User: Fold this.
Amino acid sequence: MEEGKVTEVASSIAPKLTDWVTSNSDLLVQYGVNIISAIVIIFIGNIIVKKIANSVSKVLAKKKMDPAVVNFISSIVRYVLFVIVLISALGRVGVQTASVVAVIGAAGLAIGLALQGSLANFAAGVLIVAFRPFKAGDYVEMAGVAGSVESIQIFQTVLTTPDNKMIVVPNGGVISGPIVNYSRHATRRIDYVIRVSYKADLKHTKEVINRVLAAEERLLKTPAPTVGVLALADSSVNFVVRPWVKTSDYWGVYYELLQAIKEELDKEGIEIPFPQMSVHMDKVEA
Assistant:
């Protein structure tokens, strides 16, 4: 009985639906064409946007601009152009573009209030690109982490650590704290503190250290290395040793030179003491 009622209702609706489609066929065709056109606009527009963004990247790269800055600018160009393509597609299906712009503006204001941190990161990214405290490939320390700069993105900076870990640092955190760039200058100074026994001949110790420095060809002659007594500590006399090297040679020289100093001091019989304490005991007569 229920199936008969359903069949009866369907048979009564079908003619009405057919009549409505027939009477509005022109409108349906127009809307169909507009929807297909909008899809085509988005598809082709997306391809064009990518090509334009890639072209911008290539042009900036040819001008030998920092790859991190190139990535930042190309990302902004891609997002802006895609928004324009999207508005054009909406206009094709009959949406008033002026209203769309107004809605986007209102939505942008609301989203901006809700995502103040993200906007701060974007503004910080602009400042990083403008002032360029570092570039791609630099080894930096910032926001409590250290690594080589891989890219500067719209909202964050990507670092790679020496043990090949990826660290993503929000741009706001980068700007809000100190930035230490170890790669900015062509030369760096190595700082050692060498501890020797109080029994050691200080003049002879200094001559031994200078001899080791002179034998290392990667050290720079200018500025000259500094070797001197830094402190008379509790258990040792502390020498400061400060040679200069090219930044690219820093770690290789650091490890090898420290080993060479230790071996030469051992060869000359100059003791490197352990921390020690002298205890004096007085006998009290009963």
Remarks:
- The longest strand covers residues 145-152.
